[in-house]
Amino acid sequence: MKKLSYLLLPLLMCFSVEAQTGLHFDDADDVIQTTYPGILGNNPITVEAWIKPNATSGESIITDWGSDAVNGGRFTFRVKQLTSSDVLRVEIKGGGLDGTFNIADGNWHHVALVYNPSLSSNRYKIYVDGNLDVEGDISQTLNVIANVNLRMGRRISTSFTGWYGGYMDEVRVWNVARSQADIQANMNAEFCSTQAGLMAYFKFNEGVADGNNTSISTVVDAANGYDGTLIDFAKTGTTSNWVAGSGITVAQGFSQTNTYTECQGFSVTVGSNTYSSTGVYTDVFAGSNGCDSTIITDLTIIPASINALSYELCNGDSVQVNNLWYTQSGQYTDTLVGAASTGCDSVLQINVQINAPIEVNEIISLCAGESYVLNGTTYAATGTYTEVFVGGSVLGCDSTVNLDLTVLDEVVDSVTYVECAGFSVQIDTLTFDATGIYTVVLTNASASGCDSTIVLDLYVEESINTTLAVNNGIISSNQTTGTYQWIDCSNGTELVGETSQSFEPTMNGEYAVVITIGSCSDTSECYLMENVGVEMNELERFTVYPNPVNAELKVELSHGTQGQLVIYDLSGRQMATETLVGKTSVVDVRNYNAGTYLVQVTTEMGTQNVFITKQ
After folding, report:
1. Rounded distance, CA 576 to CA 601, Å?
2. pLDDT digit string, tens, across residues 402-446
3. pLDDT band (50, 70, 90) for residue 16
4. 219 forms bridges with which residues in the sheet?
């Protein structure tokens, strides 16, 4: 197994110039709006940028933030067009200070604006390419108010545009008043690590110079994440797009890519990490100057060439592979060092299967009268038999068949039913409903697929006559055999002692009889008995009106002041129960279906019925 290890030495900072881009503003509608609120109040400020403005760009805003509503409320760094030149200008609401250097000479320039409130004079300083251009004071006191966040390329006021025209790169906003030495030390190089006091930092390196950058909508704040949104940039072509930058030096840590193409078993160690499988691996090491160093390992592992060989042999046979003989079943590996076309190892994975003579057990069931043929021999009786097929397997090995043969008798099932009248039993497509013994043969119906015979012994009890006869107040069952139990239909309770074929009620009501013959029972219809034991002329008289009735039925007692009213439909279903108090009572029947109803009135004198018609 090969293994390579890196011994990482201290990494030194190295500087190089690589593809570095800036942005072109079209002096018409291009603007960048960030989420950074800017430095507020009366605090130190430094703004830096690389710019190459157009000679005719006029009032071109580099950076602006704050509020235009009160004097001293905003902080603006811009280019001011004079008659014969363009100069830098610092503005606050209520005053400003102009530079003298002609900034629009067609070249890139580093510009810086420093405000130091701790000084008694010359609080404002403007630098061009690290040199002091102008210094002085503004009579209006600075007190920046939070309103519009840091904006590049246009004023914060909607009344004045101040579109920037030209090129811009490497915008930095600090919350400290940087010295001239600080500015000169860093103006020609990008930062690759966090800087104290750097609040917003836009490198403008997101796009491709003069390329199609329409998918990019944001410029990144490399200091604190106050990213900016690109507004109205074309993002294609040579204007209103990413362009070649100011050409400053990009500070980078040491970076090295090592590429390996090796056979399986190779590994490489970088620092504390060891890599042994195909992939691209990145190891970052912190440098003493704050810029990281990177080692990229591009590792391709060529797997060993694997060839799978399978052999299936009869017992006693053998096979030779690479000068080795195999006589037993198993999985074997044989490595041929450097034999693959890549120069790596070739691995043979050998699977050997030694087959014993094949022995098969067959379990066969036949119906009576059938037979089974095996290897030319016919078998028709229950038993165990053996047949050897010489060379009969797919490999040419012998095979043995052990035959376990069962000849099944015809299946006969007996079924007995003792049932009540009306019962029937269906077997296959046949229906039986009378007493008798029946034999049915079902072809191929048994679980084994043989014929099945069913012997049915059916006994059906005689039918029960459930009709009733009434004569002189006595109810009789028309069934002459069996046992009897009379019941009260109103609650289904049995009437004690009433077990004769006939029953004489002692009070009004509905009655039925349960008739039992053997194990079968049936119940007669309910019969309503009225005026039991009372002569009609002894009953309390009453009047029901109107009849026919539509909504309200009135009941008027001729004598007395209390009674009970029950209304039935013609099927015997109870529709209403009312207590009658006083001479006249009212019953609401408007929800009844149209038809005839029985009105039953009961007083202490007895019960009397009358039929009414509901319209």
Report:
1. 12
2. 888 888 776 777 888 777 877 788 887 888 878 889 888 877 777
3. very low
4. 228
Read off φ and ψ for residue 332, nearest 5 degrees: -125, 150
Mean pLDDT on 489-509: 87
Token pair for residue 615? 């319209």
Could you give all domains of the chain from N- to C-terminal order, each with its CATH number? 21-250 (2.60.120.200), 253-302 (no CATH), 305-355 (no CATH), 363-408 (no CATH), 411-460 (no CATH), 468-529 (no CATH), 540-614 (2.60.40.3080)
- C-alpha 196/C-alpha 224 separation (Å) is 11
What is the C-alpha to C-alpha distance for residues 42 and 206, in angstroms, rounded to an integer? 34
Whole-number CA gyration radius for the chain = 57
What's the token pair of residue 473?
């107040």
Residue 187 buriedness (CB in 10 A; 0-12 / 13-18 / 19+): buried
Q: How many CB atoms lie within 10 A of CB 470?
A: 10
Verdict on whether the full-model pTM lies above 0.70: no
Residue 537: predicted pLDDT: 40
Give Cα 559 to chain centroid, integer Å.
Answer: 80
Q: Which of 62-76, 133-147, 433-447, 510-524 has the lowest mean pLDDT?
A: 433-447
Question: Cα dist. 444→341, 366, 371, 373, 450 in Å?
Answer: 67, 12, 16, 21, 4
From CA 234, how far away is CA 228, in angstroms rounded?
Answer: 16
Residues with Cβ within 8 Å of residue 136, at least 6 apart in sequence: 97, 122, 124
Please report where in the chains the tokens 């679980």 appear, as a residue.
Answer: 447
Residue 180 phi, psi (nearest 5):
-60, -40
267 φ, ψ (degrees, to nearest 5): -145, 155
pLDDT of residue 560: 59
